[in-house]
């Protein structure tokens, strides 16, 4: 059976294919950038319209008591179900960077762990910025970045040696943003525990597509954004998870109104909430919280195990396509070939990656627009959002890339780069 026929057959047997029609889909477009910004669920339009027109517009401040004070608790509960956490261990609100700062600051000053901060060269740059900034405001004066020879995967032995010799607080991205390398969560959590350390997991490129079970993996702290595979919208709030046994030991450096035990008593003295809500700060972003709910609902409805399984199958099919059709044209796969070690995007390198991306996005007569993701200096990332990406989408995308290179269409495009890609 040829690859085209395999794509048709896989789509025919795909139980998740029914979810695609529940998103806003542009005509004649293949979207392979859900690992950066997920599509808009159609039901979110209704929720936002209701929140803005009826709750804000008609009810005004009365909506706090009638709708909004319960909204955060409802979203928190749904997020806790997704990662198999207790409801009082999860909070949704504010950005990933703000939440990472709060959690790392609290851990450093809890005196439960050595002050060493460790990360590695696969981590997302903004996490490194946060860790670097913490040196100025905490007792931690040392940050160790474990450097690997390759961007493809982590050297687990080297990482473990670093933890063993400098135990402390380790920050890692569960899925690497470049290569899609997936860390063995349980293995590293157990190793950290044995070496008097703790791992703070940034799950931004994993949540909503990887089956994350905080109990089975013995995870103590995690966080991540919701605008990628959870389809919460641009800049939608992140989540944090803190194990119950740790909540009482770490404090929030931002003593904000909603982190107070009784915010509406308007006390002049700050007393933190006795639980996960102590990590709140300012007033919840109601519109953003309203936008995220249907994305989580759809993920729970589809089942994270089903989503994760399709993600692996899509990745395997895409890698087969690339090996068969593109490697001969100078493309190199820079993601793990084994699905056990891979998140939900596949990266490929080519010297003309940027111009190829521009042509895919530009589209062509009788060809669909294809939206991938470019990462400097020569990488194309192809995101696999199982709720709306089909096998035929992948087949058509690789065929178009092959056409661009064979016909040298990229020569018609200049090499200047925009700031957002």
Give the spatial strand order of the biggest sheet.
2-8-7-6-5-3-4
Report Rg: 22 Å
| Class inferred from helices and paired strands | alpha/beta
Largest sheet descriptor = 7 strands, mixed
Helical amount among residues, as a percent range?
25-40%
Which regions have little confidence, pLDDT < 50, spanning 5+ residues?
A: none
Mean pLDDT across all amino acids: 94
**CATH level 4 superfamily of the largest domain:** Type I PLP-dependent aspartate aminotransferase-like (Major domain)
**CATH topology annotation of the largest domain:** Aspartate Aminotransferase, domain 2
Number of helices: 12
Strand content: 5-15%
The beta-strand count equals 13
Order of helices and strands: HEHHEHEHEHEHEEEHHHEEHEEEH
Any idea what the shape is?
Answer: globular
Span between N and C termini? 36 Å
CATH architecture of the largest domain: 3-Layer(aba) Sandwich
Number of domains: 2
CATH class of the largest domain: Alpha Beta
List the helices and strands and how they pair.
Elements: H1 3-12, E1 29-31, H2 42-59, H3 62-82, E2 90-92, H4 96-108, E3 116-120, H5 125-134, E4 143-146, H6 156-165, E5 168-173, H7 185-194, E6 198-202, E7 221-224, E8 239-242, H8 244-247, H9 286-302, H10 304-325, E9 332-333, E10 345-349, H11 353-362, E11 369-371, E12 373-375, E13 379-383, H12 391-406
Parallel strand pairs: 1-11, 3-4, 3-5, 5-6, 6-7
Antiparallel strand pairs: 2-8, 7-8, 9-10, 10-13, 12-13
Helix pairs in contact: 1-12, 2-9, 3-9, 4-5, 10-12
Could you walk me through the main structural features you see in this protein, from its secondary elements to its overall organization?
The structure is a single chain. The protein has 421 residues and is an alpha/beta fold. The protein folds into 2 domains: 3-31 and 303-412, Aspartate Aminotransferase, domain 1, CATH 3.90.1150.10; 45-301, Type I PLP-dependent aspartate aminotransferase-like (Major domain) (Aspartate Aminotransferase, domain 2). It has 12 helices and 13 strands. It has helices spanning 3-12, 42-59, 62-82, 96-108, 125-134, 156-165, 185-194, 244-247, 286-302, 304-325, 353-362, 391-406, and strands at 29-31, 90-92, 116-120, 143-146, 168-173, 198-202, 221-224, 239-242, 332-333, 345-349, 369-371, 373-375, 379-383. Strand 12 (373-375) and strand 13 (379-383) form a beta hairpin. Helix 3 (62-82) packs parallel to helix 9 (286-302). The radius of gyration is 22 Å and the shape is globular. The two termini are 36 Å apart. The mean pLDDT is 94.
């Amino acid at each position: 059976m040829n690859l085209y026929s395999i794509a048709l057959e896989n789509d025919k047997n795909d139980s998740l294919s029914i979810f695609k029609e529940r998103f806003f889909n542009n005509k004649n477009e293949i979207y392979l950038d859900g690992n950066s910004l997920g599509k808009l669920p159609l039901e979110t339009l209704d929720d936002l319209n209701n929140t803005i027109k009826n709750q804000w517009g008609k009810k005004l401040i009365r909506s706090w008591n009638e709708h909004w004070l319960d909204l955060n608790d409802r979203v928190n509960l749904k997020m806790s179900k997704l990662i198999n956490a207790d409801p009082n261990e999860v909070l949704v609100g504010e950005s990933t960077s703000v939440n990472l700062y709060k959690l790392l600051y609290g851990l450093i000053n809890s005196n439960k762990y050595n002050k060493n901060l460790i990360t590695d060269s696969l981590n997302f740059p903004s996490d490194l910025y946060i860790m670097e900034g913490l040196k100025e405001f905490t007792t931690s004066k040392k940050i160790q970045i474990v450097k690997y020879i390759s961007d493809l995967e982590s050297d687990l032995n080297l990482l473990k040696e670093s933890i063993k010799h400098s135990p402390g607080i380790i920050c890692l991205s569960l899925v690497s943003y470049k290569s899609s390398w997936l860390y063995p969560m349980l293995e590293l959590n157990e190793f950290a525990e044995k070496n008097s350390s703790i791992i703070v997991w940034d799950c931004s490129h994993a949540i909503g597509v990887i089956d994350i079970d905080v109990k089975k993996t013995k995870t103590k702290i995690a966080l991540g954004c919701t605008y990628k595979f959870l389809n919460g919208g641009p800049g939608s709030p992140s989540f944090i998870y803190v194990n119950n046994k740790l909540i009482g030991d770490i404090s929030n450096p931002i003593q904000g109104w909603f982190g107070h035990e009784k915010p509406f008593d308007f006390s002049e003295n700050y007393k933190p909430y006795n639980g996960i809500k102590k990590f709140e700060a300012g007033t919840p972003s109601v519109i953003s919280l309203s936008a995220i709910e249907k994305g989580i609902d759809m993920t729970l409805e589809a089942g994270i195990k089903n989503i994760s399984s399709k993600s692996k199958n899509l990745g395997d099919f895409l890698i087969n396509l690339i090996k068969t059709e593109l490697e001969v044209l100078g493309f190199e796969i820079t993601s793990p070939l084994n699905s056990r070690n891979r998140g939900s995007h596949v990266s490929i390198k080519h010297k003309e990656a940027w111009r190829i991306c521009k042509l895919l996005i530009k589209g062509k007569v009788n060809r669909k627009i294809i939206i991938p993701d470019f990462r400097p200096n020569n990488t194309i990332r192809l995101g696999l959002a199982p709720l709306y990406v089909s096998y035929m989408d992948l087949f058509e995308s690789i065929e178009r890339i092959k056409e661009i290179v064979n016909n040298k269409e990229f020569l018609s495009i200049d090499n200047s780069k925009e700031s957002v890609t």
